[in-house]
Design brief:
globular, single chain, six-stranded antiparallel beta sheet, alpha+beta, BirA Bifunctional Protein, domain 2, 9 helices
């Protein structure tokens, strides 16, 4: 099957990195329990060898399915999605710790590194009960919900890559951004990450630059962030998707986020 898809100028998939401007995996406890991807001990976890051919077709069908369909296809879900996804998380965690530091956390379970496959229907009951993607997170810090995080979004529209962090103290954030040394360092890191990529920087909570900063402040866009910042982009699914080399492909792109991620870790 041809796994390659045109990911250019496709903004819609990022609407559900999980909903609001900054995804709930960073800021808000996701109360959707999802379908459990229970943790597997490392000794029992097979090595990641690529996602199976049925992974994308299953997610395509799942996005329009109901609970009856899902219950009838749970074995297929395990074989096509759950088992390879847990192996992928373990492999990515090992590589990210090698490349970006031993403090990176990867937990191969739902509400660990693996986001729930179910949608939270409390505020939008008309949407599909299930997602067409799996959202993964690898964080650095003691608290998952407040830690700087690297994201992968694996789905039918392509592969999304992101780095992000919540803003827990907005006054401290503004001081860091306004300061010439720390603010310029973040702006430069974001500019470097965006070079050659269709980078979307999300999380602005203010329409105007908050006072006492001027509207023409050189980092006005960053000063408008309120709840957090996430820098993200989408790419077509690579040919390596069905092979172990997909880990190298994703690692290379998340390592490109290292300077922005390190700024978050050092300052937030």
């Amino acid at each position: 099957m041809d796994r390659r898809r045109d990911g250019r100028n496709r903004r819609r998939p990022f609407v559900d990195w999980s909903g609001p401007a900054i995804p709930p995996p960073i800021l808000i406890p996701n109360r959707s329990k999802g379908i459990d991807m229970a943790p597997t001990s490392r000794s029992e976890q097979p090595a990641f060898a690529g996602f199976p051919d049925d992974f994308l077709p299953f997610l395509t069908e799942l996005s329009g399915a109901d609970k009856v369909w899902f219950q009838a296809n749970k074995t297929r879900y395990r074989d096509a999605v759950t088992d390879p996804m847990k192996a992928f998380v373990v492999a990515m965690g090992d590589r990210l710790r090698e490349e970006m530091g031993s403090a990176i956390v990867a937990e191969p379970k739902t509400n660990g590194s693996i986001g729930p496959i179910t949608n939270d229907l409390r505020f939008n009951p008309d949407r599909s009960p299930y997602k067409d993607h799996v959202l993964l997170r690898f964080w650095e810090g003691p608290e998952r919900k407040s830690a700087p995080t690297l994201f992968l979004r694996v789905g039918v529209e392509g592969i999304g890559y992101a780095t992000g962090a919540p803003i827990m103290d907005v006054d401290r954030w503004r001081a860091l951004v306004a300061d010439e040394a720390t603010g310029s360092a973040l702006a430069d890191a974001l500019a470097a990450l965006g070079h050659g990529r269709d980078l979307d920087i999300d999380g602005q909570g203010y329409k105007k630059v908050p006072k006492p900063h001027a509207e023409d402040h050189p980092r006005a866009d960053l000063l408008r962030h309120k709840m957090g910042l996430q820098a993200r982009w989408l790419e077509p699914i690579p040919d390596s998707f069905g092979a172990a080399a997909f880990v190298d492909h994703c690692t290379e792109r998340l390592v490109a986020c290292a300077d922005v991620h390190r700024w978050f870790v050092d300052h937030l």
